[in-house]
Design a protein that fits this description.
CATH architecture of the largest domain: 3-Layer(aba) Sandwich
Strand content: 5-15%
Strand order of the largest sheet: 4-11-10-9-8-5-6-7
Number of helices: 16
CATH superfamily of the largest domain: Type I PLP-dependent aspartate aminotransferase-like (Major domain)
Number of strands: 16
Bound molecules: pyridoxal-5'-phosphate
Shape: globular
Distance between the termini: 41 Å
Oligomer: single chain
Mean pLDDT: 92
Number of domains: 3
Radius of gyration: 23 Å
Largest sheet: 8 strands, mixed
Length: 480
Amino acid sequence: MKLFLSRTSHESLTDQIFYQLAGRIQTNMISGGEKLPSVRQLSADSGVSFLTIHKAYKKLEQAGMVKSIQGKGVFVERPVRKETFVSAFDWQLAIPGYLTRSSFHSRPKTTYAFDYSAMNPGLLPTMYLADQLKDMLKAEPAILGTYGEVQGDAQTREAFAAYLTTQLGLSASADELIMTTGLHQGIELIAKALIGPGDVVVTEAPTYPGVLDIFMNRGAKVIPIAMDEEGMRADLLAHVAKTYHPKAMYVNPTFQNPTGRSMSARRRKEVLHQAQLHGLFIIEDDSWSELYFDEKPPPKPIKSLDDDGRVLFLKGFSKALAPGIRVGTIFAEGPFKQMLLTAKASSDLGTPLLTQRAVLPFLTSDRMRQHFEKLRVALELRRDKTIAILADSFPSSVSWTIPEGGLNIWLTFPDNVSTMALYEYCLQRDLSFLPGHVCFPYEPPDHHMRLTYSLMSEHDLTEGLQLFAALTNAFLKEKR
Ligand SMILES: Cc1ncc(COP(=O)(O)O)c(C=O)c1O
């Protein structure tokens, strides 16, 4: 097992080991019942003393995450669900691997799925896209026989540049865009080009769990920064930037995943100012700024205020258009674009031409405006329904955000309630949500959760919310 350790970090080696193992356990990369490497083995793999490893294991035991069994070893203490530990495969654990956490690979599918931040396929223009794709392939079958360029198809980049310029108020040219396979890949490419072991990155707290996986798996130290009503707190950012010299900050300023909140226009300026003052990149994730409610468009992207290539702006259409296509772009000005092209080339040599061309008809027609208009109405209705049922049926000790757009609501329980325990309870009744701890690095609070209201059919959403209220009330009663 490989750990990313830094001897210059302000955190002790014991704590670094503890947090990295805790992350793997919390996100099920190491499952319940699995045996940790022996103290001797991990000490050899990571080049630190037996005593340091022993102390980290003790800390995990005190946190209730592992159990040490005399003469047998140290075992992970979580309920074993499907996985059984097959000893014939033990040898695999002796070969060190690098990854430290993952939030996505082991979640069970349920009927009442409040956990997947995605759209109900019925809300997406899939028939239109299929027809356009058929016509396009008939007219130009060579698309299937051609590799895409590393930077991305020139026609698609032109269309994305026009979209960013006319719809989002940026001034982008096709040459400044790199096409990616989903927005997530854009973040991964930036991390690959910029972030290595021991580097510091800041994020909002809570944040999109996928970026924690990316940054932590590159060995970065992630510093989460609390938010208030206006978004990431600029005073805390200033302090962290001065003290820890981060290389980059990741923000999802519009209808943020997981809280649904948006950063105010004033805070966008302050955050950019801090980044300029302290010399760090801003990675700005715009997954769904088109999906606003109450006819109130959000403030313009931070990128629109950028005059020195500080903001790496990421746009994707997986959520609002076609998760089965997953095309996104990075808008990067200045010499750093070359690094990103190298990262893209070493990752996959370019996004498939087919998927890039598949979004072209949509991007270049009025169909896009009509689709977003309809989607806004449908999502606003779902948000209102969700808030109404929460207000009617949930205990008064639970509070929630009221998103002004997007797909997610963030719930906060009293801090003695474990949403992970509630999650296990709800899973037995075929209902799931995202336990909030995966949205924080290291020692995460366990009394939040994210509810996504966009994935289920309207019927299942209503039924699911009623079931969820009943389960939550019963769970809290049992706990008393
Ligand atoms: C905030 C945010 N950014 C990026 C992604 C990944 O998007 P894509 O599917 O385009 O890679 C997600 C997916 O959940 C997300 O929630």
